[in-house]
Design brief:
By secondary structure, this protein is mainly α. The protein folds into 2 domains: about 70 residues; about 45 residues. The protein has 4 helices and no strands. Helix 1 runs antiparallel to helix 2. The N and C termini lie far apart (about 85 Å).
């Protein structure tokens, strides 16, 4: 079978499973919710599995595997480093807030003085 035809077949299977799962969940009101939810999750799982058979799905799987590999390579900070960084960020927020408040107050006084509205 031609590669594009095979890809379209998998896309069609994915679409049918996904829309069928949602439609069945909505329209089969006579069945208990637990059974409908199990059917929905099963059909969505099968739709995801068929999606992985498409060219885009294969690319996604490769990307996912590369991402997991990169996360495993990452060096995560210790609790102490995280706390120190958090406190440094909070301190900078306070300092910048006070600085901007002071600048804003100074500009307010300057504009009020220039327009003659100070104290009215």
């Amino acid at each position: 079978m031609h590669e594009k035809t095979k890809d379209w077949c998998w896309w069609l299977i994915t679409l049918v499973l996904f829309t069928g799962a949602i439609s069945a969940r909505i329209f089969l009101v006579q069945y208990p919710a637990a059974w409908k939810n199990i059917g929905l999750l099963t059909a969505i799982g099968l739709a995801c599995l068929s999606f992985t058979k498409t060219s885009l799905g294969g690319t996604f799987i490769e990307f996912w595997q590369a991402s997991v590999l990169e996360v495993r390579k990452a060096v995560w900070p210790t609790r102490q480093e995280t706390m120190q960084t958090t406190f440094a960020v909070l301190a900078m927020i306070v300092v910048m807030g006070l600085l901007l408040w002071t600048i804003d107050l100074g500009l307010l006084k300057l504009v009020a003085t220039l327009t003659g509205r100070w104290g009215n």
